[in-house]
Amino acid sequence: MKASCKAWAAVAALTLASAVQAVPVSLTKLTGVTGGTVAGTAVYKADLSTIGLASILSIGIRDNSSMLGGSTGQFSGFDLDAIKLSNTDCLTAACAAGAAGLSVFDFMSGVLFAAGSQRAPVEPKLFGTDPSGTLLDDAVATLGFFDGESSTVTPDGFLSMGDNGTIDFNLTAATSTSGLFLYIGEVGDNGEVAAGAIVVRDTPQRLPEPGSLALLGLAAAGAAFARRRR
């Protein structure tokens, strides 16, 4: 392999390695359901003291329900009722809903949401967002509270992520994982959280800058060229 190819491969490896900062978490389903007047939210817990990070600064959720979660149109994909970090260790969904949460979420400006696709018939928007795909937390989604209705007649208090949608929460401060528990609510109790990918990070999640995207593309191209030369 020529020196230039080795250099490209080294740049690619360094760039890709620096982008991988997510630690997957193991979830346990709690007993019972919680939610709104028509309660039907299942709650899943992760013990973050066992993940090997001293503190976290962001949490990511990716819908991975294989086009089966949620329903058609604006309710496609994983329906997220709420997300909470707490030092209270709960065994039931009702306990998680009532537990004191840490004030480290900024649901208005600290959220990066990439809406997934809808199954036909396609609606103008996913539930919990406006037609542009922007999260409407204070108005509709209310992701800080376990208040999602399990009925689609008068849905309230949750976000439909869409098939293969992603959402990242940047915390307002580094949060120690010692004695820390993550609670995630899934409207409808359909097992969608268990099918999703939940990760935590010790760094905030940022939208890639155009320059960094170009660098990543060049690095990947260099790595592919190096493989062809070999």
TrEMBL record:
InterPro entries: Ice-binding_C
Keyword Translocase among record annotations: no
UniProtKB keywords: Signal
UniProt signal peptide: 1-22
Signal in keyword set: yes
Ice-binding protein C-terminal domain segment(s): 208-230
Protein's name in the database: PEP-CTERM sorting domain-containing protein
Biological source species: Pelomonas dachongensis
